[in-house]
Amino acid sequence: SLVPTVAAVRGMALGGACEFIMHCDRAVAALESYIGLVEAGVGLLPAGGGCKELALRAAQEAARGSVGGQLDLFPFLRTYFQQAALATVSKSALDARDLGYLRAADVVIFNPYELLWVAKAQVRALSESAYRPLLPVSGIAVAGRTGIATLEMMLVNMRDGGFISAHDFEVGLRIARVLCGGEVESGSLVDEKWLLDLERREFMALLKNPRTQERIAHTLKTGKPLRN
Predict the structure, then answer these.
(1) What is the pLDDT of residues 135-173, one digit of tens each?
(2) Domain spans, the chain
(3) By the 8 A CB rule, do 142 and 198 touch?
(4) Which of 220, 187, 191, 188 is nearest to 41 (CA)?
(5) Is 11 helix (H, G, I), strand (E, B) or coil?
(6) Residue 69's pLDDT is what?
(7) What is d(CA 129, CA 132) in angstroms, rounded to the nearest whole number?
(8) 93 near 75, Cβ under 8 Å?
(9) Strand stretches in the chain, DSSP E
(10) Could you tell me the pLDDT band of residue 68, with boundaries at 50, 70 and 90?
(11) How far apart are CA 218 and CA 140, in angstroms?
(12) What is the CATH number of domain 6-222?
């Protein structure tokens, strides 16, 4: 969009709402905001660009922390993977910043009654500073099949230890494939479209899975997750 977008956040912002925030130019969040990607709870993965954003942010954070040009993606990737696979929700807006759902430039306010005023001020500031939308990102470093294998071993240990179900394993493995950029060599560079295509493909595969359908139906009926 040629118009700057600012998300004004208060209360729960889960799933698609979290993805909406992550794609805005700026977010203004009340302190008591609870943000997270919770799709795994109903047997799905974030498919509104959420997985793509986590992979992108992991690559950007790894690049900032690289030493002598050596890029170690995995520590950042593992953290984001665990958040998505375990449907982690922030305990506050400050916690959401620590989890990576909010960026350093996003604003946290303590008085929720000031939320819209501050958000509108952010829109004006962006608009009056010769705003231009970001170009689609290319050259995103991914962990590839090596990263997938490592995350799969984590999932195997959790499944065999009784911490997750068989279907949790399936969901987690598909999330891992997207975050790692698919079956490519470790360190390969991909673009946003590549990650979005992967995300959509794995989402549709889960949507066709009878166990995911059982989870969705159970959650709609009871408001509670089903561990099948």
Answers:
(1) 889 999 999 999 999 999 999 999 999 999 999 999 999
(2) 6-222
(3) no
(4) 220
(5) strand
(6) 62
(7) 9
(8) no
(9) 6-14, 26-36, 107-109, 140-141, 189-190
(10) low
(11) 38
(12) 3.90.226.10
